Structures are given as structure tokens and as C-alpha cells.
């Protein structure tokens, strides 16, 4: 799992740096620390760390007792994107019910069942002002087999 996380974070770092660098001769600043990478350019910034996000940081309710191995924040030309993957020992049905209760009153709430066989899975999308939010929940098959995987993401469209 650690190898997968490191590769995923490295890909995100390279893609984010390339996106932020653009075609100009702008300066790029990279800072690293224990469990954290930050990239700043004239066009925006990218940060990756290994902390479990809070609702205030990612803008989406974080399932109680869940854990995370990383989160990503990207901002560019007024647009922002935040994402994190969480795991819970609670069953997928319980986690899905909690998120439905927390989010069902949100503007443009939409729910798509992605269940496969006996494994419940759902994708929930909604709008929070100018930000589109997405939550996917299902039984993890690879990183933490049998645990419930919760992917959180949200972003605004950059202003042109």
C-alpha cells in the first residue's frame, strides 16, 4: 500500500507541477517536510500530505472514526481542487446511510448506485456554492481489503 501511495503522490506531484508551471518562465518553489510536499508557482499551488482531513479543510463531512493516508489540494487561476481517500472499519451500508443523511439536503444532490453483487457502493454528488462535491463509498478490494473506502473530492472551475 505504501508503494502505491508514494507512486500516486509522485504522479500527482508531477502532473500538478506541470499544470502549474504552464508555458511561462515563472519560478517554481518546492518545499518538503515529514509527510508533506508543497509546490508554489506564479500560476497556483499544490500540496500533498499524509494527514486525515477535517471537514473544514476539504469542505465535505469526514466520516467519524475514519482514517486517511493522504490528501491533495490544488489551486490554479482561481480554481481549487481538494481530494482525500478514507477508510473505515464500519460496513459500507452504514457509511452510505450516514453520508445520505448528511448530504441529502444539499443543492443538486444526486446519488448513483454502483453496487456490484453483494458489495454496496454509491457515488454522491452535490453543489456547494460554486464548488462541485463528490463522495464515493464502497468495499475496498485492494488497499485495505474488506474495509469501507470513502473517496472525497471537490473543486471549482478556474475563472477564464
Topology:
Blueprint: H1 2-21, E1 28-33, E2 36-41, E3 44-49, H2 55-58, E4 67-76, E5 79-88, H3 92-103, E6 110-113, E7 121-128, E8 131-139, E9 148-156
Antiparallel strand pairs: 1-2, 2-3, 3-4, 4-5, 5-9, 6-7, 7-8, 8-9
Characterization of this structure:
- It is built from three helices and nine strands.
- It has one domain.
- The chain starts with a helix and ends with a strand.
- It has a nine-stranded antiparallel sheet, sandwiched between helices.
- The chain has 160 residues and is an alpha+beta fold.
- The model is unreliable at 1-15 and 17-25 (pLDDT under 50).
- A hairpin with an 8-residue loop joins β8 (131-139) and β9 (148-156).
- It is globular, with a radius of gyration of 17 Å.
Computed Rg = 17 Å
How many separate domains make up the residues?
1
Helix- and strand-based class? alpha+beta
- Spans of at least 5 consecutive residues whose pLDDT stays below 50 are 1-15, 17-25
